[in-house]
Design brief:
One of its GO terms (molecular function) is zinc ion binding. The chain is an alpha/beta fold. It has one domain: Beta-carbonic Anhydrase, Chain A, CATH 3.40.1050. Helix 6 (about 130-140) packs across helix 7 and helix 7 packs across helix 8 (about 170-190). About 50% of the residues lie in helices and about 10% in strands. The structure holds zinc ion (ZN).
């Protein structure tokens, strides 16, 4: 058995044990989404409760975790999931990459959160004025290229820009929405673990856009 397999099995074993020990309440995707949106409303109103961010919360989660949601968000410094959802330690399992696209590593991280930690919800979170989406538009429309490994990010964004382009003139707002929708569908169909959990009704996957000025998360329609 290769070293990586041994590590994975060890992690699964430890997690299975900690899951039995956890005292956190099971909630479904709809309830998790409501908690997130309630937290976002507190954030927009400046009424954050900063739940479970203290020493006691750290102690409570030191030996186990049961996050209520997976967030796939952009790396943008203004889009910090725990802050904008007014969430605490242990609440969110966060995957961040510029442009909030689904990478293989991101998929694997989500599979762990669903299969081992029992996460019932994925929210793909795009945001206004996303530089990665803007670069994706430039790459698609003008064949622009970018230094280093940046172009590799855009390969995942350009399909969404192409979909937006097929519907009319591409605006940033439209491309951002399509990019979220594309990643949301990609999560629903990804691999066997995520797609099976969705089919069995154990995993809810939604898309949203974060508005930088208001702080509000807008949930996008599924279609
Ligand atoms: Zn961004």
């Amino acid at each position: 058995m290769c070293h990586a397999s041994i590590l994975v099995l060890a992690a699964l074993s430890v997690s299975a044990q900690t899951r039995r020990e956890t005292t956190l309440t099971n909630i479904d995707g709809a309830a998790a989404l409501k908690q997130l949106m309630d937290g976002n409303e507190r954030f927009t109103k400046g009424e954050e409760k900063n739940p479970d961010r203290d020493k006691a919360a750290r102690a409570k989660t030191a030996t186990s975790q049961r996050p209520m949601a997976i967030v796939l968000s952009c790396s943008d410094s203004r889009v910090a999931p725990e802050i904008l959802f007014d969430a605490g330690v242990g609440d969110l399992f966060v995957v961040r990459v510029a442009g909030n696209t689904l990478t293989l590593e991101g998929q694997a991280s989500m599979e762990y959160a669903v299969a081992v930690l029992g996460c019932p919800l994925v929210i793909v979170l795009g945001h206004e004025s996303c530089g990665a989406v803007d670069a994706g538009i430039q790459a698609y429309k003008d064949n622009a290229t970018f230094p280093g490994r940046i172009d590799s990010l855009l390969d995942s964004i350009e399909p969404a820009v192409a979909i937006a382009s097929a519907k009319g003139p591409v605006t940033m707002e439209h491309a951002i929405d399509e990019n979220v929708a594309y990643a949301t569908q990609s999560v629903k169909m990804a691999g066997t673990i995520l797609s099976k959990a969705v089919a069995e009704g154990k995993l809810t996957v939604v898309g949203g856009v974060y508005h930088l000025d208001s702080g509000k998360v807008e949930i996008l329609d599924a279609n």
